[in-house]
Design a protein that fits this description.
Number of helices: 7
Radius of gyration: 16 Å
Shape: globular
Helix content: 25-40%
Strand order of the largest sheet: 2-1-3-4-5
Largest sheet: 5 strands, mixed
Order of helices and strands: HHEEHHHEHEHE
């Protein structure tokens, strides 16, 4: 009998395990509006992580205020008007920075990617996305479907 079963512990599935880690990564977010975490995985190995916030060396919104709040910009619109970078973008950049191939990898993200992140995901060769919560960006779903990327929503936090 499995040691965890003997202790009465339910072992998480791989998907639950990686999504739990993405949720932990989201706790590093510096965004005042939404904390998002992303994890890129291949062959059950974590290749890169990312969370949303200002680029390295740039003051965080907590220090200077949220540009999007000041300008009253709705979620899912005018992504270019933000000091921050999305979690998925940070994970892809981290992999590139360290020379890690993410072709045919899986993305675990606390939110469904926006259209900008989706285009990066497609060109990076990511083949499947697991996410928890939706996102106000209709273009994203259409692009993912057209690219043949499998998208699965997981229950959870």
């Amino acid at each position: 009998m499995d040691i965890n079963a003997q202790r009465g512990i339910t072992r998480p599935s791989w998907e639950e395990y990686f999504m739990d880690i993405a949720a932990l990564v989201a706790r590093r977010s510096t965004c005042l509006r939404r904390a998002v975490g992303a994890l890129i995985v291949k062959d059950k190995r974590i290749l890169a992580t990312g969370y949303n916030g200002a680029p390295s060396g740039i003051r965080h919104c907590g220090e200077v205020g949220c540009l999007r709040e000041t300008m009253n910009i709705a979620s899912g619109q005018r992504h270019e008007l933000c000091r921050g970078i999305h979690a998925e973008q940070n994970a892809i950049i981290q992999a590139a920075y360290h020379g890690v191939c993410i072709k045919d990898a899986v993305l675990f993200c606390t939110n469904l990617p926006c259209a900008i992140c989706t285009k990066m995901i497609i060109n990076a060769g990511i083949k499947k996305i697991f996410y928890q919560s939706g996102y106000a960006d209709e273009l994203s779903a259409g692009l993912l479907a057209e690219a043949g990327i499998e998208v699965i929503q997981l229950d959870g936090a």
